Amino acid sequence: MSKIRVTQVKSKIGRLKNQKRTLEALGLRKMNQTVEHDATPTILGMVNKVQHLISVEEIK
Predict the structure, then answer these.
(1) What is the pLDDT along the chain (60 residues), one digit of tens a residue?
(2) Claim: this prediction has a pTM higher than 0.85
(3) To which H or E segment does residue 19 belong?
């Protein structure tokens, strides 16, 4: 299974509550914090929900 690296690049201040919770569910609590996840459908759905706040890279 492939992995992805997710980095928060924009602030969650002023965002909807569900977007804030999605960032926390991904493990992102601070700006410029990076986490790695398996590219499962659940994770990809969460990434899609907050794609305007994060950057995503595929890890080979």
Answers:
(1) 899 999 999 999 999 999 999 999 999 999 999 999 999 999 999 999 999 999 999 998
(2) yes
(3) helix 17-25
Q: Identify the H or E element spanning 56.
A: strand 54-59
Which CA distances in Å does 19 have to 13, 28, 39, 59, 60? 10, 11, 19, 24, 28
Question: Quick one: which of 9, 4, 6 has its CA closest to 52?
Answer: 9
Q: Are 28 and 15 in contact (CB under 8 A)?
A: no
Angle, CA 33 vertex, CA 60 and CA 26 arms, to 5°: 75
